UniProtKB/TrEMBL annotation:
<dbReference type="InterPro" id="IPR049739">
    <property type="entry name" value="YraL-like"/>
</dbReference>
<dbReference type="InterPro" id="IPR009057">
    <property type="entry name" value="Homeodomain-like_sf"/>
</dbReference>
<feature type="domain" description="Mor transcription activator">
    <location>
        <begin position="12"/>
        <end position="89"/>
    </location>
</feature>
<dbReference type="InterPro" id="IPR014875">
    <property type="entry name" value="Mor_transcription_activator"/>
</dbReference>
<dbReference type="InterPro" id="IPR052411">
    <property type="entry name" value="c-mor_Regulatory_Protein"/>
</dbReference>
<dbReference type="Pfam" id="PF08765">
    <property type="entry name" value="Mor"/>
</dbReference>
<protein>
    <recommendedName>
        <fullName>Mor transcription activator domain-containing protein</fullName>
    </recommendedName>
</protein>
């Protein structure tokens, strides 16, 4: 989450009102109910991990060992095995 300067998006009157309650401190304003985004949706992290996991399964199906995949992706062998197992289950 990146910070946005209030003076760039809010009218001065609202900034003055907020300063009555909290002056010079950070404040988190949550999304409107119903506008929430799930984890990884904003920056595409979820999609990137899904693509990586499918790539791992495909390489494994083409003969690359779990040990070699762990080295290539800088993950534990246990994590690679879990990814392969989950992706096989999803493809079945």
């Amino acid at each position: 989450m990146q910070h946005i300067k209030a003076k760039n998006v809010l009218p001065k009157e609202i900034i003055d009102l907020i300063q009555e309650y909290i002056d010079g401190e950070y404040i988190y304003i949550p999304r409107k109910e119903g506008n929430e985004k799930s984890w990884g949706q904003k920056k595409g992290t979820r999609h990137n991990l899904k693509s990586r996991n499918i790539e791992i399964l495909n390489k494994h199906n083409n003969g690359v060992s779990v040990r070699e995949l762990a080295k290539q992706y800088h993950l534990a062998e246990k994590s690679i095995s879990r990814i392969i197992r989950q992706e096989k289950k999803l493809c079945a």
